[in-house]
User: Fold these one by one.
Assistant:
Number 1:
Amino acid sequence: MAKSTITYVCTDCGGETLRWAGQCPHCQAWNTLQEFHVRKASRDSKARPLQPARAVPLSEISAEDAPRTRLAWGELNRVLGGGIVPGSLALIAGEPGVGKSTLLMHAAAQVAASGTVLYVSGEESGQQVRMRAQRLSAIAPSILLLAENDLDVICEAIRGELPRLAIIDSIQTVTDPGLEGSAGSVTQVRESAARLMRLAKEIGVPIFLVGHVTKDGSIAGPRVLEHIVDTVLYLEGDRRQELRILRATKNRFGSAEEIGVFAMGEAGLEEVTDPSAAILATSAQAAPGTAIVAVLEGTRPLLVEVQSLVNKTHNTVVRRIANGFDVNRLHMIVAVLEKRLERSYGTSDIFVSVAGGIRITEPAADLGLALSIVSNENNRPMPDGLLVVGELGLSGEVRRVGHLERRLQEAARHGLTRALIPAGSKAGRPSGLEVVEVRTVAEAVSAAFPTQIRSGAFIKEAGISVS
Ligand code: TYD
Ligand code: MG
């Protein structure tokens, strides 16, 4: 066994520290530091450089992209930055049960059309993997299965087969016999991934690693691996719902902002090439408290439905619960509504949720969420076919957002007829979409609800008499 020294690695943020402590000095999480045995490099270590070091003039290095293996699904290609790069190491992370193995089996079937795929399963038996593949219609003679945990055996198999793609499901079940620690420990996970990275680069075989995201301290989370791998893709989604989003958070070979959208069904996943349509199809028509907003994911606009429920409560402490939306942002929006519209939510619970399991991270949805709260509170639906775009400032002003034109085009394409947008936006106006510019949240309320909502400063501000 190789000699090692010990450092401590945080399973939450991947930060390293020399001394053990109850709290991670980098991310301040508690009880997340785990022993990490650093292997001392020896002469015969597997870590020796692949080729003797030689500096070359920058101008002599080829600028051409390595030929990528393209998959049948455009949604997958998009997140990968245009296909699978030979010799790359990608981490596909997500909660247990979200669909990682399913997604990778689909990917295997698509690559198998042009070469062998080695699927290494450390979690399931060959029979279980076959049953899933059968359900996905992904059985091909060129998909080879290896049910194995031993990293030495796995590396040998990859070297021997030189597949078009190797999949390791999952990195937490792999153990390097030359290392201390059990499967899933920080030492094992990090060192195994580093060894697979060297192998991938050496023989040019792309490797996909599955990584489970879990809060359990005994298993090293994917965070520990993010620095090592080339690409990190998170598979997100509510297990009880259909939509799954594959989000790139790091990509050495493409944009790290792209998402791919899929739907889980009886026969596995399907790509969703028009996510706005899929999301709008499930939306409750004109119910009080729903609003349609346009968020940008990477280069791509998405129409998303946000919902609010404002409910009087007799409890002394009111609740603010946000699903798919930042709860602090919700607090801010509620405060702006209270101050600028002279409303009071001090005795109401407010729940907000984003349809389809989407997570909104953009302030461009602020105004839509604000209007959905007003709509539910007054039991007045928003008009059909209305898009609401705008960031909300603390004084109730509606701020401009980036790429407005793309958002409006997406709305027009999906048959929306009217859009409330921040005043002064210079975006082109797609035909078929009536655009109303609003300067404040008060103006937005009067524009969204054609007949008045009783009392409040916004009515005075908008110059409408109080009924
Ligand atoms: P899986 O890919 O095993 O998840 P992970 O590898 O991320 O742990 O898939 C998990 C869920 O997907 C499982 O609860 C059942 C569901 N599923 C379907 O709904 N349809 C299918 O065709 C398949 C294969 C799975
Ligand atoms: Mg799995």
Note: The domain at 70-273 is CATH 3.40.50.300 (Rossmann fold).
Number 2:
Amino acid sequence: MKLSRPQEECGVFGIYNHSEASNLTYLGLYALQHRGQESCGIVSSDGNSLHAHKRMGLVADVFSNPDVFKKLPGKSAIGHVRYSTAGASVEKNVQPIMVDYSRGSIAVAHNGNLVNAQLLKAELEAYGSIFQTTMDTEIIIHLIATYKTNSLVDRIVEALKRVQGAYCLLFLTETRMIAVRDPNGFRPLCLGKLGDAWVVASESCALDLIEADFIREIEPGEMIVCTKDGGIKSLFPFKKIDPTPCIFEFVYFARPDSTIFGRNVYLARKELGRQLAREYPVDADVVIAVPDSGVPAAMGYAEESGIPFELGLIRNHYVGRTFIEPAQSIRHFGVKIKLNPVRELLKGKRVVVIDDSIVRGTTSRKIVKMVRNAGAKEVHLRISSPPTSYPCYYGIDTPNRKELISSSHTIDEICRYVTADTLGYLSEEGLISSIGHGNTHYCKACFAGTYPVAFPKPADTLQKGLFEEEMNGHE
Ligand code: AMP
């Protein structure tokens, strides 16, 4: 049986008991746009029924017509932004999913990726379930509908006891909003308060935008039920395990102004840069970042090394992340659309370029060439995380193992491929010590290949040849 590939990079937002619920959800999704740019949607509840608006596209486009909000009445709403791999990017997969079942209506928004989705799906289909989407999330809905108990909370708990993997979930019914974070706590999820309203968001930056108070993070394995009396109930219905939050959220994915897993992302990234400077110093004239995600680490590197930080690459902010372009040919072009060097600054200089990660290597190669073409005398590439050698099965969209350049190439080979003078990656120990936080056992599967929730690894053959052609000068 073909096992599921990671499909979900997402953000979720929900608000309960506010007269402008759908408007505020729209703003919350705006703040979470970096977590998914392919599609988005909002489902609201007016107390009697649910209302939805969801489409492919960015938040600003999908909700560009203010009349849309008239069709999203009520005092509670949940929303979702999504990025998925090309194969699954179809209209029917846009979240939140909304269904009618024997007890009423329910909508769900999901950030994460289940590892036993295909097995559960096959089992449910054998019992007659008919699936309308290709998303893991629909499996949860079917499981909820399957259980016979009256209580929705019990149904959700029973359903989630069957699923394995990463999930931050927001459920909305006519009268309730329920948030759940998986026992490993892979993805971030926080709780806020805006007047009498409760707010739940993937990242705290969404609370800031709507001026909600950050109350706390939702704990791994915790379920928060917003109740009609204006309170919340906190439940821990799952077997307690050692949480493994995703360290890549700190490296790349989360917004620097967010606080996740108890730590501000900007400060964590700056510390990664400082540690990188200690591990891989170099004589150079200027430190520049690959914007935006490399900026805090570059500032840390500059501070620690004493080499001045400059904005040597200027980003066009009206272009999406190059990584989301589906075809290699477009991605090559995309780097130029997105970034342009400041020639006068780089000419004749020994330049340190900082980026947060190398995935396929295509971006780094283009950037190193771009900096050299701008007149740099030397280009030293420094990466503020260890080599990304293994795919993520818990909700970060990384390609197959064979497409990850570091899974089949040494650091020297990668250095040659990206055409840098030197290349240094932050060590795993350096990453962990910089992020810190006592006894937290982060998930670092993408670097170490050890998966905290078991997943049968697909038998990818590593393909050196994939990169060799380009190394030999063909493009
Ligand atoms: P690549 O050309 O595949 O090596 O892309 C590397 C760039 O992609 C780096 O600048 C990272 O900031 C960025 N990146 C790393 N991981 C991801 C991800 N999961 N989604 C989108 N972009 C990413």
Note: The two ends are 36 Å apart (CA to CA).
Number 3:
Amino acid sequence: MKFFVDSADLDQISELNDIGLVDGVTTNPSIIAKSGRVFKDVIADICKITDGPVSAEVTAIVADQMVQEGRELRKIADNVCVKLPLTMDGLKACSILSREGTPTNVTLCFSPNQALLAAKCGATFISPFIGRLDDITLDGIELIEDIRMIYDNYGYETEILAASIRNVNHVKDCALVGADVMTAPPKVIKSLANHPLTDKGLAAFLKDWENTGQSIL
Ligand code: G3P
């Protein structure tokens, strides 16, 4: 499963990239606003950290303007992926940009039918929002399962990019049901390594080693 970092924090992205845990980055207007930086500048900086897809979201709501914005965003770097909302205008823009060879990420997906439309429109990625479904007591992982089955039934090449991931169980469950990609905040990615028995076992190893009085170097 590919790991994308859902953030515009360059230090956090670089830290994870140095470990080999960054296959791409996703942003959205809220993440960009939180960065406090100029949109195009922060996307350009992220694209210098990773060669993987970097999702930059359009802010227009009419297809023709979405296409214009997408073409503008693509000028920033070769690995910019144009993020489009799952509306009829967003799907039309997805069809146009995809036919031009532009990587697209159709976002704000909350139903299998929406994901089916995105695949038919040639989306590179579909972003189903797990956490926001869970927030209203629906089952976000079930959506990933349904999309996986639909895409496999017809051989759609659109990659399932599980988004709105809030905890380590979301990551596990996405891997179990076959999401192609998961995008998560740096804090969630880092917490995947945590386990109290690992900490306890390492402490015991080091205590016993210390008692030998030896050193490796
Ligand atoms: O990539 C989409 C993601 O940023 C949304 O996450 O936690 O705001 O639902 P969240």
Note: The mean pLDDT is 98.
Number 4:
Amino acid sequence: MDKLVIEGGVPLTGVIEVSGAKNAALPILFASILLDGPVSISNVPDLRDIHTTLKLLNLLGCACDYQNGRVEARPGDLLPEAPYDLVRTMRASVLCLGPLLARIGRARVALPGGCAIGARPVDQHLKGLERMGASFQLEEGYILGRCRRLKGAHIILDMPTVGGTENLLMAAALAEGETVLENAAREPEVVDLANFLRACGAQIEGHGTPSIRIRGVPTLHGGEYAVMPDRIEAGTFLVAAGITGGELLLRHCPFEELEAVILKLRSMGMEISQTPEGTLARRGATLHATDVTTQPYPGFPTDMQAQIMALMCLADGAGVVEESIFENRYMHVQELNRMGARIRVSGYTAMIRGVQKLTGAPVMASDLRASASLVLAGLAARGTTEVRRIYHLDRGYERIESKLNAVGARIRRERE
Ligand code: UD1
């Protein structure tokens, strides 16, 4: 297992390229199951979750090659089985359920694992697919799904689940008749998936709003598509500029999709502007505390909660973070406290009192975004921070240490 060793205290300055969005690339790759012809998908980040997905797609009968950020996928004769060994490492594997049912009317998919950030059920995915005519059984930890051709339906989600919206969107694209998805997720990654499907011939309207209308078509063709840039990776680098007191220019930063994050960072005293070359971020004279509540898009993303909390640790005054999406997403707190932060958690709420400095310490990464917050804290801390169990980080950040070292950080990867 690898760990990152960070010598903190260097202001980061320079240019960073933002990679393609993991959370958009994953559903788009799974959507290639739906296609009749080959597809070429570019701007796909080189990440562990992407390689897990490609392995799974190859097993399912959709042949995929990855080279230089581009996936060439050729759907062939499909098999229905997504085995536990792959699914347990990545919750998003459940996104093959809708496409398999739409395409071959059968799916046997292990119940997902993934980040340890709460119970994270998939009931909304299943209920929606049942409305479209599928039936499910649970057998030895596997979801067994069957259907004849799926039929369009009127579906109201209990909550705007991102994965649920994506699974149903993909299934509805090939269903017979019209599907209306209400209380749908509005996340930019859902919009990117819808745009990909439209590029392959799907008839979708209203993506990016809470009501998506899909007219099923008999077949979808292949084509070419470029994945959107990663707003969470970009947001993490914005915080890196603020927490180290440096100045970073982010190329391909999805500025509009990061509006809620940028407004919060500005209210804390960061200066962030859009220039012809990219997004420029630096810390102003002082960092001020703020309050943050995570919300579905366009609200403040739960995937940036841990990172902004690291920044709040070094702000003037006290602020409150409320996590409203996941029930167990404060595992970075005790690690940040070991570095000298003053954070107290009560239920879904964390109270952060700013301190003058953080000090390096050995810390343990527990999930993807928690790991990012520990790296950020390590960049700002005095002394050496060792972030252990960084396999979480490798699931979601492409070449993070080389990107950060190129702008002045001192990070090395070592075997534990
Ligand atoms: C996606 C993102 C993840 C992000 C999350 C919220 C991917 C691969 N992952 O995860 O990075 O943190 O959106 O923005 O895109 N829920 C149910 N029943 C369901 C589905 C969800 O109760 O059937 C609940 C979950 O437990 C959670 C909330 O709904 O409390 C939101 O989950 P969801 O939007 O589905 O997140 P994911 O798609 O898993």
Note: Residues 23, 26, 91-92, 118-125, 159, 161-164, 189, 302-303, 325-326 surround uridine-diphosphate-N-acetylglucosamine (CB under 6 Å).
